[in-house]
Write a structure and sequence with these properties.
Layout (H helix, E strand, L loop, with lengths): L6 E7 L2 H15 L9 E7 L2 H4 L15 H8 L5 E5 L11 E6 L7 E5 L13 E4 L2 H10 L4 E4 L4 H9 L5 E5 H7 L6 E3 L14 E6 L3 H7 L5 H16 L9 E7 L2 E10 L2 E10 L3 H16 L3 H4 L6 E5 L3 H8 L7 E5 L3 E5 L4 H8 L3 E4 L2 H7 L9 E5 L1 H9 L5 E4 L3 H11 L7 E6 L6 H6 L5 E11 L5 H8 L5 E4 L2 H13 L10 E4 L2 H7 L6 E4 L5 H14 L1
Parallel strand pairs: 1-2, 1-3, 6-7, 6-8, 14-15, 14-22, 17-18, 17-20, 18-19, 20-21, 22-23, 23-24
Antiparallel strand pairs: 3-10, 4-10, 5-8, 5-9, 11-12, 12-13, 16-21
Helix pairs in contact: 8-9, 13-14, 18-19
Length: 555
């Protein structure tokens, strides 16, 4: 019985927002005469599946992602009640659990945060917006299909931090969360609720209890807000009847205006977003959600949500340096393709001697076979205007970006570079300097020596194999969330193989496909049992991009 209870245990997620919402509930309860000086409260922090597994994209099929573990504790009587964001509670709640109270609703609208002062309508084309909400994704795509939408999970503070560090150009959040945490952002734009209809229950706090615990149930009902209850129950009834939840691409928003409940919904359809609005008198609100659900079923088909097909998100792992990977990604603007950086090599510059610097400055021609060598040696090339030979798109781009203009570039591999030098250098007395890594796949000076062309090799960096793979990447491999791995050199492929053995990940590669820049790299990659193999037609950026575009069209 209640009079034997001295402490009420409240279950909640462990995020700052969840704890803040729980403290709001506690404050409401403490103001009740039935509670005051009779009971204390203990907050039980729970890490739900949604808190632990940040890799999951929230789409239909993850019902109870943020609530099930808390529900289990409630049913086992480990806690006496639970506090949730109303939108996280599945529309079909367990038979032994009931929602005892809804607190007064905070602002239910979405808000856009940007690194520059944009409104949603003025966002530049191809700008990247971060969100994990499938509802927000479909709404954004319907209004602005030119924008890039990228997967984003994490609590409110984490998302804002990712925005501040330019991982995204903009993010969309629930305004209620910002308000409750007392957070703000310089560049913000509250989104029009008629265009961005929120998830059912957004902005409301819900308290759940065991259905049979009539005493606790009765007690909690004292903090219920009737207006919010009517609005949210209308939304939830609609979601229940179409078998949808917060993880569905559905917007549902009810608002009491005067003596009417005004209800707006939005769902994806073949012709874009389908919006439907209706209203009823306050005393008939119970049937409004059901009525609108039936209308949509009649218009769109009985099981219309099941027929919605979402494009498969494919993730590529880029194993070259972050700088090179980012340069590559700038040239790739494909929907449903996600590119992650995981460098297999760490580049360590080597300081040159005075004699080496002098040899570079007086050289008649300089040879580069990697973009890394160009970028590291740029400080030694300020006044260099003589001939520069290089191989590959990346190396050529690096030369041009570092204001090296007198460049002759060969497509293909190192052998094509050798043929180019042999053709261009007629005077064998010319002083040639090869600026390179400590270890190279081909001994270029030795080959050119056989052709009576003498080259001085100057080592400007060495590439060290990484010894660990970051945990987020490991998690994605183990969860079969990586679709492709790309290799741009033999050394990166070798390093990857070694790390796969270290972490015992061989079995996970059977679900992944491999892209190699050349046949020789592919042979190393084939030591792992990938699902499928692709090889670029030529070992250059242009051919690689062509292959990516081909995959985009065929997958």
């Amino acid at each position: 019985m209640l009079n034997t209870i001295t402490q009420l245990k409240i279950g909640t997620r462990s995020s700052k927002l969840a704890l803040k919402q729980t403290k709001i509930v506690i404050k409401k309860l403490e103001n009740l005469p039935q509670i005051r000086k009779k009971f204390s409260f203990k907050i039980i922090k729970v890490k739900t599946k949604g808190d632990i597994d940040k890799s999951k994209i929230l789409h239909s099929g993850y019902k109870g992602f943020f609530t099930k573990k808390i529900d289990d504790l409630l049913l086992k009587k480990k806690i006496d009640l639970a506090v949730h964001s109303a939108k996280d509670i599945p529309s079909k709640i367990g038979n032994n659990i009931s929602i005892a109270a809804f607190l007064k609703r905070e602002d239910p609208r979405d808000i856009l945060l940007t690194n520059k002062n944009y409104t949603f309508d003025t966002l530049p084309q191809n700008l990247t917006i971060g969100t994990s909400s499938i509802r927000r994704k479909t709404q954004i795509h319907n209004i602005r299909p030119d924008l890039k939408i990228e997967y984003m999970r994490g609590n409110v503070e984490t998302r804002i931090r990712k925005l501040k560090t330019n991982k995204y150009d903009a993010i969309i959040l629930a305004l209620a969360g910002l308000k409750r945490l007392g957070l703000s952002y310089k560049n913000k734009n509250v989104l029009n609720i008629s265009k961005f209809i929120p998830s059912g229950g957004q902005g409301a706090i819900a308290v759940t209890v065991r259905k049979k615990d009539s005493v606790i149930n009765k007690l909690i009902k004292n903090i219920n807000n009737n207006k919010t209850e009517t609005e949210v129950k209308t939304e939830r009834k609609f979601l229940e009847k179409i078998n949808a939840d917060c993880d569905s691409p559905v917007g549902a928003y009810a608002k009491i205006i005067n003596n009417y409940v005004c209800f707006s919904v939005t769902v994806p359809s073949k012709n874009g977003m389908f919006v439907y609005k209706s209203r009823t008198k306050f005393n008939k609100s119970e049937i409004l959600g059901v009525r609108v659900a039936n209308i949509l079923k009649k218009k769109l088909g009985k099981n219309f949500l099941k027929k919605i097909k979402f494009p498969k998100k494919l993730t590529f792992l880029l194993t070259r340096s972050i700088k090179q990977s980012n340069e590559l990604k700038k040239n790739i603007n494909l929907k449903n393709f996600n590119f992650l950086n995981c460098p297999m090599l760490k580049i360590k510059p080597i300081k040159l001697t005075k004699n080496q610097i002098k040899e570079i400055k007086v050289a008649d021609a300089i040879i580069f076979s990697s973009a890394n060598a160009v970028n590291i040696s740029r400080n030694y090339l300020n006044s260099f205007s003589n001939k520069v030979f290089c191989v590959g798109d990346d190396t050529k781009v690096a030369c041009l970006k570092n204001n090296i203009k007198n460049v002759s570039s060969s497509d293909g591999n190192i052998n094509d570079l050798i043929n180019l030098i042999t053709k261009k250098i007629k005077d064998r007395s010319k002083k040639l300097v090869y600026i390179s890594a400590k270890q190279t796949a081909v001994n270029l000076p030795l080959i050119l020596k056989s052709k009576k062309i003498y080259v001085k090799k100057i080592v400007i960096y060495e590439s060290k194999k990484i010894k660990t793979i970051q945990k987020p990447i490991l998690d994605l491999i183990r969860l079969n969330k990586l679709n492709f791995v790309t290799f741009f050199s033999k050394k990166t492929a070798i390093t990857f193989n070694q790390l796969i053995l270290k972490y015992k990940l061989q079995r996970y590669l059977m679900n992944m496909e491999c892209i190699s820049l050349s046949n020789s790299i592919e042979q190393i990659a084939k030591k792992n049992n990938f699902k499928k193999y692709y090889v670029s037609s030529n070992p250059d950026r242009k051919s690689f991009l062509k292959l990516i575009n081909f995959l985009h069209k065929t997958i």
